[in-house]
Design goal:
The complex is a heterodimer of chains A (115) and B (119).
Chain A lengths: L2 E3 L4 E5 L4 E3 L2 E3 L5 E8 L6 E7 L7 E2 L2 E6 L4 E6 L8 E9 L6 E3 L3 E6 L1
Parallel strand pairs in A: 2-12
Antiparallel strand pairs in A: 1-4, 3-9, 5-6, 5-10, 7-8, 8-9, 10-11, 10-12
Chain B lengths: L3 E4 L2 E4 L5 E7 L5 E7 L5 E8 L2 E5 L6 E7 L2 E6 L8 E8 L14 E2 L3 E5 L1
Parallel strand pairs in B: 2-11
Antiparallel strand pairs in B: 1-3, 3-8, 4-5, 4-9, 5-6, 7-8, 9-10, 9-11
Classes of the chains: A mainly beta (115), B mainly beta (119).
Chain lengths: 115, 119
């Protein structure tokens, strides 16, 4: 069974600084995908970034990048130049590849950006 | 132009009642899901459908019954509501076609959520 661990229940970051949100995962399957989602206080879930287990390079999407360290089974989200609108819950998730697979979510990290 | 929509956004009802939540996606996706998010923000899958066929059914009480009239719609009906059913329910969809030789997992697109309060 897959497991996602987010050990930071809450974090603060100064506006315009970078922040790293931690995520570790556990699976014995070699084919999987890792996701990050953002949930602002308004409640919607917004997909941010994806990393496949065989991807050679770390995924990037604008100010978001995923620091993928396969041997350590970590998939940390890095947000550069934090903005006030980045204040939200952030969820790490994973899914195996092939067939119909469940997505397993972590418990989330609440990020607050301070002006 | 909303990609995944849910109605209603808020639902307040009494214990013992029966209620439904509707979900529609206009993304052309094959697979749809229902998730429950509890008060601690933990998100857990309940059901998944592909082309109207049930493919994932977690250990959910049988008071919860999903129905998919077509691949763009997935509704959730809840019988005999209990206090513990109070949560936010999210519908989602993805391109996942369940291919054994797939090379990627697919992100899910979520609806805005339905906040269910049972009193």
């Amino acid at each position: 069974a897959q497991k996602i661990t987010q050990t930071q229940p809450g974090m603060f970051v100064q506006e315009k600084e970078a922040v790293t949100l931690d995520c570790t995962y556990d699976t014995s399957d070699p084919s999987y995908g890792l996701f990050w989602y953002k949930q602002p206080s308004s409640g919607e879930m917004i997909f941010l970034i994806y990393q496949g287990s065989y991807d050679q390079q770390n995924a990037t999407e604008g100010r978001y990048s995923l620091n993928f360290q396969k041997a350590r089974k970590s998939a940390n989200l890095v947000i550069s130049a934090s903005q006030l609108g980045d204040s939200a819950m952030y969820f790490c998730a994973m899914s195996l590849v092939g067939g119909y697979q469940k997505v397993t979510f972590g418990t989330g990290t609440k990020l607050q950006v301070i002006p | 132009d909303t990609a995944v929509s849910q109605t209603p956004k808020y639902l307040v009802t009494q214990m013992g009642n029966d209620k439904s939540i509707k979900c529609e996606q206009n993304l052309g996706h094959d697979t749809m899901y229902w998730y429950k998010q509890d008060s601690k923000k933990f998100l857990k899958i309940m059901f998944s459908y592909n082309n109207k066929e049930l493919i994932i059914n977690e250990t959910v009480p049988n008071r919860f019954s999903p129905k998919s009239p077509d691949k763009a719609h997935l509704n959730l009906h809840i019988n005999s509501l209990e206090l513990g059913d109070s949560a936010v329910y999210f519908c989602a969809s993805s391109q996942d076609r369940g291919l054994i030789r797939a090379t990627t997992a697919y992100e899910q697109y979520f609806g805005p959520g339905t906040r269910l309060t049972v009193t």
